[in-house]
Amino acid sequence: MNRLFFNSDLSKRKINFFFQTILVLVLYYNEISELIPLKLILWQIVHFSLIAIIDFYLDDYPYKKEKILWALFSISIVFLTISLFYGVFNAPYIRIHLAILILGNIFGGKVDKPFWKLLTMLNLLILFSIEFSRNELYSIFGMALLYASGAIFLLAITERISERNRSFWMVHALALFLYINFKGPFYEEAFIFLVGGIAYELAKILIAQMPKLKPL
């Protein structure tokens, strides 16, 4: 990655971050603060920050990284364990969110490294185990499937287009913002995704500001 591209990419991330932050704040102080527990919002911030850090070490870190990746994998397992212990996955829209994230990334071509493949398998195993034990989505399967299919398609398309134009994430964010405003089915999942987008962009921006991690 040359410096010109790095600076251009960083500028787009900052624009995406501020744009999505404004949307989330408007939604949060409108009604969302009363509907989604703060612990789930904080969980999502940690979740997507961790994804951003892993992405950096997988794709952009130029030095030896095997030990770092093993440490990050261990942290991911601990994070999943804590999430299970504190009942994060009890909310149906969180399980739908994970399914959308996993399948959207698969169809978007992002699950392309052994690290992500193994972590994806673990997440799917957890997701199926919880759903089979609780069986909550069965009664609303049709609506959940319709929503998830649309969200997965939108995420997959955005992943593909954003490889050439990162600003397309703002289109994705705006689509979620409008959907949440209209209180569509599982709009809580859409809000959680927006929060994740902010956390991801902020983590990437902070990583880029670290002098030792900038490209020569």
Written overview of the protein:
The protein is mainly α. The chain is 76% helix and 0% strand. The protein has eight helices and no strands. It has helices at residues 3-30, 38-59, 66-85, 92-107, 114-134, 141-162, 168-181, 187-208. Helix 4 crosses helix 8 (187-208). The protein is globular and about 50 Å long. The mean pLDDT is 85.
List low-pLDDT spans.
none
What is the share of helical residues?
A: over 70%
Gap between N and C termini, in Å?
9 Å
Largest sheet properties: none
Give the overall silhouette: globular
Number of helices: 8
Instruction: Name the structural class.
Output: mainly alpha
Mean pLDDT: 85
Radius of gyration: 17 Å
How much of the residues is beta strand, in percent?
under 5%
Order of helices and strands: HHHHHHHH
Task: Note the main attributes of this structure.
216 residues, mainly alpha, 8 helices, 76% helix
Brief sketch in words of this structure:
This protein is mainly α and 216 residues long. The chain contains 8 helices and no strands.
Write the layout of secondary structure elements.
Blueprint: H1 3-30, H2 38-59, H3 66-85, H4 92-107, H5 114-134, H6 141-162, H7 168-181, H8 187-208
Helix pairs in contact: 1-7, 1-8, 2-3, 2-8, 4-5, 4-6, 4-8, 7-8
